[in-house]
Amino acid sequence: MKFSLRILIPVLMLIVIGCTPQTPNEENDESEIFVEESYVNEVEELAESAKIKEAMEFIRNMDEETVQNQIAITEIPAPPFQEEVRAERYAEMMQEYGLDQVEIDEEGNVIGKRPGTEGEQTIVISAHLDTVFPERTNVEVEVRNDTLFAPGITDDARGLSVLLALINTLETLDIQSADNIWFMGTVGEEGLGDLRGVKHLFETEGDKIDAFISIDGSRASRIVNKALGSHRYRVTFEGPGGHSWGAFGTANPAHAMGRAITYFEDNASQFVKTGPKTSYNIGRIGGGTSVNSIPFENWMEIDMRSESPDALQQIDGIMQDAIQKALIEANSIKTQGPDLTVDIDMIGNRPSGEIPADVPFVQRALAVSKYFGQVPELTRSSTDANVSISMGIPSMTIGGGGNSGSSHSLDEWWYNEDGYKGVQRAFIILMAETGLAE
């Protein structure tokens, strides 16, 4: 069933919708991807079973309901570190679809547990509750030419609605998995949330988890098996401050910060020219009180990323050295007053890693992509799966279907272009890993 508001779409909108934009911070693996024939056969056999065929039809028929859930979730604000209201409603929705073991943990994650008939392994399948948007952002969904516009409509209301569709399918059709399934709405995936939801999960329950799937975004062909690691810092230079004329000669935090930026840029720009792909960015700066006052404080926020843990540590070292060099020089040229100090506060630490393409978990997912007529696609990105990937636990992030664009902007959009196929693909990937109980 197509979304009920479908009408004629202007040619320009068709051009936009026809593209499949790459998710920010995501890198495609353009090398040839090998899928073993045994996994292709395994997936085909599973997909052709009566129970799975029934599930595929059920998912297609509930497509409009899945979209309505997506809209309802989007319109519950979930700013960074303020996911409580959405979490409470999401827990209720899990229960309404049939899960009876649902809880909100100490960190704020919503976890719904569905035991398997054998229960030898546990697979977590998740989507994140939080958005990047601050309080009082208008999250009401607007429909234009059958395209949904709203902050967070895709990232990650789509993923959350897909989880509900999977729960509804399993419960309504009484489909039993051999392994345990934990459905999870996580907190803190975005920005300074620093993956706090999944970090808490693996700190407290990690020994029970055998595989992890995150549903994030829309693109139904992607499989993120490589985690993009990052270090984030807030660096604050502090001094006595004073009048720009009367206290001239006092060590200036803004001048020290400028030196630090220059030294960091000079050395980091050379470092990233070779070796594993690595990036750096100073995204925010602030401080000071007026144009004619020596600041008592200036700060900057720094983001560094790399596909290599070693390279990430090295560029981190370049940053640390630049800051210390700037501090020493700024203090050496002052003519009065106390020395400057600097506080280097790590505000984000996302681990990197990679699950090889020949691991059965990834091979099955690639085989599912082939079953749906897609070109198998492996990518690197920064998602909730970073934590488990870095631990060597078979993990991936997949898209929830449909088409989307302008992620993290007020004009974020999602279009129901065969969105149900993303749910179907997620369902078969899940069942291929958990096993369909006899």
Q: What is the topology?
A:
Elements: H1 11-17, E1 27-28, H2 37-47, H3 50-61, H4 63-74, H5 84-96, E2 102-104, E3 110-114, E4 122-128, E5 142-144, E6 147-149, H6 157-172, E7 180-186, H7 196-205, E8 211-215, E9 222-227, E10 229-238, E11 242-243, H8 253-271, E12 278-287, E13 293-294, E14 297-306, H9 309-333, E15 341-350, E16 353-354, H10 360-371, E17 377-381, H11 386-390, E18 395-398, E19 403-405, E20 413-415, H12 419-434
Helix pairs in contact: 2-10, 3-12, 4-6, 6-12, 8-9, 10-12
Structure description:
With 438 residues, the protein is of the alpha+beta class. The chain folds into 2 domains: 301 residues, Aminopeptidase (3-Layer(aba) Sandwich); 122 residues, Alpha-Beta Plaits, CATH 3.30.70. The chain is built from 12 helices and 20 strands. The N terminus is likely disordered.
Q: What fraction, in percent, of the residue positions are helical?
A: 25-40%
Spans of at least 5 consecutive residues with low confidence: 1-22
Which of globular, elongated, flat, extended, rod-shaped describes the shape? elongated
Through-space gap between termini: 30 Å
Q: Residue-averaged pLDDT, rounded?
A: 93
Task: Tell me what the CATH architecture of the largest domain is.
Answer: 3-Layer(aba) Sandwich
Strand coverage percent: 15-25%
Q: Any idea what the radius of gyration is?
A: 24 Å
The CATH homologous superfamily of the largest domain is called: Zn peptidases
The CATH C-level name of the largest domain is Alpha Beta
